[in-house]
């Protein structure tokens, strides 16, 4: 029986004359970034735990924990003081971490792009900075600062809610000191997952942007989409792009569901890769 090509095979573009090595973010940088953010979040939760414990042991609070207005007032003051303290800590920490993280990611993007293009036969890939790359680095530092400081706000709100709930909740598991301690454990688990998501997404997103800039700098206009096959439920839109060739500034990358848009690695939780290609023309 004659072989019949699938529709996907029929749509696939001709192979380019040459192609580089696949580009992907650094797992080492992601794990370093995650460890840095985890450490300061843990320090914050530990500080809240200690300060709340001291407030609970206050004689005025211990005497009539559930209904006394004095207890509410004491906790409000503790929460307000801790909120200000850790807002200041995260602003300073976030500025420093964002800068160091973006610089590390840029170094990786520079070296990995250089290696990829060298493997494709480019003898002297450009690794210097141009205005586009400098602008991307500056924007990435500003953009990355926001999710770092937002983690602090999310943790504070969860702890604050747990403390206030402990004063009024009819549920024994949420009442008093034990209710607060149970809530703090849950906050720690949720915060750790949140940090993991942020650091994975930011590492991939910043690397994707800088890699595109490095390819443009070297006159590379196209890449092949390589689907990662990772995840329990792969994105169908990304699966459909597997093996296809796109222009780096192809408007089709920004079509479809908003959560799926962008070049490989840009969308949240996207582990797809791009492979630089040479000798490809749109009329092909």
How would you sum up this structure, described in words?
There is one protein chain. A four-stranded antiparallel β-sheet has the order 1-4-2-3, with helices on one face. The radius of gyration is 25 Å and the shape is elongated. With 284 residues, the protein is mainly α. It has two domains: 21-220, no CATH class; 221-284, no CATH class. Helix 2 (27-56) packs antiparallel against helix 4 (69-119), helix 2 packs antiparallel against helix 6 and helix 4 (69-119) packs parallel to helix 6 (176-217). The protein is built from seven helices and four strands. 62% of the residues lie in helices and 6% in strands. It has helices at 7-11, 27-56, 59-63, 69-119, 131-168, 176-217, 236-241; strands at residues 18-19, 222-226, 245-247, 273-278. 32% of the residues are buried.
